[in-house]
Amino acid sequence: MNNSGESPKIAVLMAAYNAEKTLRRSVNSVLASTIPVDLYIVDDGSKIPVSVFLGDVPQNVFIHRLSKNVGLPLALNAGLRIILEKNCDYIARFDADDFSYPERFQKQVEYLEAHPDVSVVGCWARVINEEMNETLFELRHPERHEDILKAMRYNSAFIHPTLFFRSEVLKSLGQCYNDDYRIAEDYELMARVVRGFRTANVPQALMDYSYLSEYSASKKRNRQLWIRLRVQLEKFSPVDIHAWLGVLKTACLFCMPLHLVAEMKKKRILTPKNIE
């Protein structure tokens, strides 16, 4: 799959905190990949250690336990410090409550190898209600970098656990995830990335994405909106109409009930392809 004929080295980064209900299924979905991957799990101080819960794991699964719970941004940074010493070709993100399709990593490698100018690629996903185990809608972000730049003015144009990086991108950033932007750390990271690297999304659903794990608490959602607004203002360009519209959209979402946002997404009224 590369010029040498050897399989690329892919490291999948996952952080887990008290994720016993979903972790085993998520891990199994990664291990079912159609191409070889190494899975690095950062146990963010779970009450039941991940190593105890999972028991014996294959040789391509590595578990690093933190002494205390530090939160997602710092846990991911801890995992990246380990991975970046391994000289991997690619680094993928995944979450402990999502489900990866077997062909996901292969499709993303093939996309990057077919587009050498692209450094980071995400993909589409089926959004699942984790309590009812039903498909709510398909989340589709723009494929092309030019459209992604526009969409980033409104919200992240990527689903965080679908991100797939060339390793040199993360090596070049110095600080990857910023704890000051917790809950919206992925939006802040990609707001930096899109300004220095070409990006894309594979226009195909390659994973199931848990909806309620991200949006169930309104207090958490409001904090996420505040941080999104902060990033939008920090990157604000007064000559860009989408910068103005993005700030306006975020402000309006503060007043919009969560269930109404979900219904509008189901009906493709708030479609990421158009305005997110």
Would you write up a description of this structure?
- The protein is of the alpha/beta class and 276 residues long.
- It has a single domain (10-266), classed as Spore Coat Polysaccharide Biosynthesis Protein SpsA, Chain A (Alpha-Beta Complex), CATH 3.90.550.10.
- The chain is 37% helix and 21% strand.
- It is built from 11 helices and 9 strands.
- The chain has helices spanning 23-31, 50-54, 72-83, 104-114, 145-151, 167-173, 185-193, 212-215, 218-234, 241-253, 258-266, and strands at residues 10-16, 38-43, 61-65, 90-93, 99-100, 118-129, 134-139, 164-166, 198-210.
- Strands 1, 2, 3, 4, 5, 6, 7, 8 and 9 form a 9-stranded mixed β-sheet that branches.
- β6 (118-129) and β7 (134-139) form a beta hairpin.
- The chain starts with 9 loop residues before the first strand and ends in a 10-residue tail after the last helix.
- 41% of the residues are buried.
- Mean pLDDT is 86; it is low at 213-217 and 269-276.
User: Judging from the principal axes of the Cα atoms, what is the shape?
Assistant: globular
- The name CATH uses for the topology is Spore Coat Polysaccharide Biosynthesis Protein SpsA, Chain A
What is the CATH domain class? Alpha Beta
Integer tally of domains: 1
List the helices and strands in order.
EHEHEHEEHEEHEHHEHHHH
Corresponding CATH superfamily = Spore Coat Polysaccharide Biosynthesis Protein SpsA, Chain A
Q: State which percent range the strand residues make up.
A: 15-25%
Structural class: alpha/beta
What does the radius of gyration come to?
Answer: 18 Å
Number of helical segments with 4 or more residues: 11
Main beta-sheet strand count, sense and barrel state: 9 strands, mixed
The residue-averaged pLDDT reads 86
Helix content: 25-40%
Could you tell me how far the N terminus lies from the C terminus, measured between alpha carbons in angstroms? 33 Å
Strand tally is 9
> What is the annotated CATH architecture?
Alpha-Beta Complex
As residue ranges, the low-confidence spans are 213-217, 269-276
